[in-house]
Amino acid sequence: MVNFGYTMMCEQAGPTQLADDAVRAEQAGFDFAAVSDHYNPWLGEQGHSPFAWSVLGAAAYATHEIDLMTMVTCPTRRYHPAVVAQQAATIGVMSQGRFTLGLGAGENLNEHVVGAWPHRTQRHEMLAEAMEIIEPLLAGESVRHSGTFYDVPEARLWDVPTDGVPIVVAVSGPESLELADRADGVVVVQPDASLRRPGRPFYGQVALCYGLDESECRKRAVDQFRWFGLQWPVMAELPDPRAFDAAATFVTEDDVASAIPCGPDVDKHVEAVRRFVEAGCTHVALLQIGGEHQGDFIEWSRSELLPALHAAGA
């Protein structure tokens, strides 16, 4: 059976609302809640970007059953890997074992705030080395590491959940897929069955724009998500929201609506999710566009969307 998640998108809501929405998502019947970990929003119109780990701490304390995860954290520039391990272990303890650490190679948008953005090849090498530090720390081991990118003279985590913290890695192609071979699962943004690793959790994320007025939803989607079709090689390199705005200048409302279901028709939204399920995803996070529309989306998910997804065999 597929697990359906709710996305706490930090780029479009403040920290208190995000934690409150996680509580509402649990009450609505979502299986997990995923949080984005950004320093900047993709576009200025989104208007937010609080510290994801503070949000996770609040959500872990305020919820009781829903699983939590990062989708995803970059452990190579903005955070040192040893600090990521401590953050993950703390949320794992606070949530009583409900936390999964999602890792990825990151984007210039968020990581350049602490220094130069490295080449893609080096980013993958950095992520691989970061995992060499994070994995044993989360297993409760003492770590001494002197590597190409990171030094850890000596580190140990003093608060670690009894069963550790699962690690899943975001992949987009063969290079990043090699990194995922050592992880507990895989995260994708496109329904690509070739990226699946049999026997391991396979996470996807679907952007939706629910509302009673389809025309208004289409306008909201293009206003806040017109960057969505830029493809990962572009998205990973652009430095700030102004660059994303410029790159998406010629994206039309029809372009966005063709990729993102908009409006109240539950069948449209089920079909968008179905593509990820048919690709083999075991977990699908649903991302509602528009921070001020989260309450309506969560209630609609409780009453219509989640029952429809289960009824459709997803």
UniProtKB/TrEMBL annotation:
Keywords: Oxidoreductase. Residues 14-190 form the Luciferase-like domain. InterPro entries: F420-G6PD/mer, F420_G6P_DH-rel, Luciferase-like_dom, Luciferase-like_sf. It holds the Pfam family Bac_luciferase. It comes from the Bacteria. This is LLM class F420-dependent oxidoreductase. It comes from Dactylosporangium darangshiense. The lineage of its organism: Bacteria, Bacillati, Actinomycetota, Actinomycetes, Micromonosporales.
